[in-house]
Design a protein that fits this description.
131 residues, mainly alpha, 42% helix, 7% strand
Amino acid sequence: MIPENDVVSFTERIRHSIEKLEPSFFEITVAMAFDWFASEKIDIAVIEVGLGGRLDSTNIITPEVSVITNISYDHMDLLGNTLQKIAFEKAGIIKPGIPVVVGEEQAEIKNVFLQSAAENDSPIYFASQKR
């Protein structure tokens, strides 16, 4: 947990940017977390995407591995009204050359992930196939 004095210090340091850019609370906390990780010289961090993937504020990192859990009809107002559209947004975390693990193989959207992985030359694994 980030100490309270570090939260206050970070907020004061970026107050002008907050007022100018009007980021969401989530975006501010992501920036604060990344700033704190850097100042503490954190070697490994598990970063969960907030919503979607492609346009998420956490998507600025280059991970060691990307993980996409199951895809369902969630956040349809932002991600799309079909599983294919939602999967496309979630696949936005796939980075060039970085392995990706998809939690559940779903026949109707498997190709969305395979195509994105191929375009990024990223190894892809479906956890539901591994025993």
